[in-house]
Amino acid sequence: MVTRLNVELTRTVDESYPLLIGTDLAGELPGVLDAAGLSRSRVAVITDSTVNDLIGAQVMDVLTRAAQSQPAPRAPRIFVFPTGEENKTRATKEQLEDAMLAAGFNRDTVVVALGGGVVSDLAGFVAATFTRGVPYITMTTTLVGAADAAIGGKTAVDTPVATNLIGAFHQPRAVLIDVARWATLTDAQLRDGMGETVKHACLADRDFFEILEDHFVRRGGSVREMVGDAELSGYIARRNAEIKVEVVQSDVHEGNRRMALNLGHTIGRALEAALDYALPHGECVAIGLNLQCRLGLRYGYLSETEATRVDTLLRAIGLPTELPAGVSVADIMRAMGHDKKSLGGAIRFVFQRGIGAMETFAGGSYAREIPSAEVREFLEVQPRS
Ligand SMILES: NC(=O)c1ccc[n+]([C@@H]2O[C@H](COP(=O)([O-])OP(=O)(O)OC[C@H]3O[C@@H](n4cnc5c(N)ncnc54)[C@H](O)[C@@H]3O)[C@@H](O)[C@H]2O)c1
Ligand SMILES: [Zn+2]
Prior knowledge:
Blueprint: E1 19-22, H1 29-35, E2 42-48, H2 49-68, E3 77-81, H3 90-102, E4 109-115, H4 117-129, E5 136-140, H5 143-149, E6 154-157, E7 166-169, E8 174-178, H6 187-204, H7 206-218, H8 223-228, H9 230-250, H10 265-274, H11 281-299, H12 304-317, H13 329-335, E9 346-350, E10 367-371, H14 372-380
Parallel strand pairs: 1-8, 2-3, 2-4, 4-5, 5-8
Antiparallel strand pairs: 6-7, 9-10
Helix pairs in contact: 3-4, 4-5, 5-6, 5-9, 6-7, 6-9, 6-11, 6-12, 7-12, 10-11, 10-13, 11-12
Bound molecules: nicotinamide-adenine-dinucleotide and zinc ion.
Nicotinamide-adenine-dinucleotide (NAD) binds at residues 48, 50-51, 54, 83, 85, 88, 115-119, 121, 141-142, 144-145, 148-149, 152, 154, 163-164, 181, 184-185, 189, 192.
């Protein structure tokens, strides 16, 4: 005999949160915690060693003073792990959790993720599972974080098999994008964030694209000068965030609309894997963006002039646009899941329509299939850097 019960757990949740963009935002943290109803929770700041050296003390100072003004003050603590993608692992997560437990943190915790994408991915994932889940706030300090990693609620760690394989969707309770922090990033780190920035302009906003063209192409400005221009960097932070927010809002769990964010990533990610992550993500995305323009040109999704404008902007920023000489098409195809034997397969691509919009296909889909044999042939005839 089988007894069958139905566990009815349908629920609607409101996971809305504020996103603050500005300069020197550490002072906003107490107000943000308060507005989220978290001013009485005990704060665990999680950061990496580089960001800790830069602003750990300042952030702890603000949070300690805010905690002292509470009726039952509980000292915030900072947990620092060594900088670097190689530390975005389950092992680091465990060490952070053990340190938090040893320091007496419990369900009544709010995590503050202070740093770039490595920190927000790792600290967000710690928050997702600590005592079955505690809230977290992200204060992002890199352009990659501002353009991408801090928004969307995707948290994860890497494994030896692949990056970002183990994780959770866990939305932050607030995101702070501190543009002043970009001043200490290297040119290479800034360029890395420009891959995703140009992607956003290509997929959603022609004006944004033209403002970038104006700085980098017409005036010959550098990423360093971009950071020095408060108005321009503030605008870039805002448009990046608005575009990512608009896409994520319309499609929280990666359905159709969110596929637009894959622009330039089908080839870009495969190239990244084929090169064994020797090239930064933003550079691979830049190459992928240029190549989806070139492929889209074959189908008339954009004009030769528009494709050239994308190439010219990426080059002016200092990003690569051509496949590096050392990588084989076979390796890229394999990274897309198509080895020599699977001749019959197809690969799903998203394409920009002109500049500032996405091409849509049957049923409103943002993706279409291209026969893998054609993709291989296309890649084989591309110029190499
Ligand atoms: N969850 C998502 O949706 C998503 C999206 C994109 C990227 N990511 C992840 O984000 C990571 C890449 O992001 P990232 O480039 O910010 O990495 P990161 O956090 O490692 O930061 C890059 C480097 O800059 C340093 N740094 C951070 N802020 C600084 C500052 N203000 N001044 C000087 N140095 C500073 C860091 O210590 C690090 O060495 C990857 O792990 C990637 O998987 C996640
Ligand atoms: Zn990306």
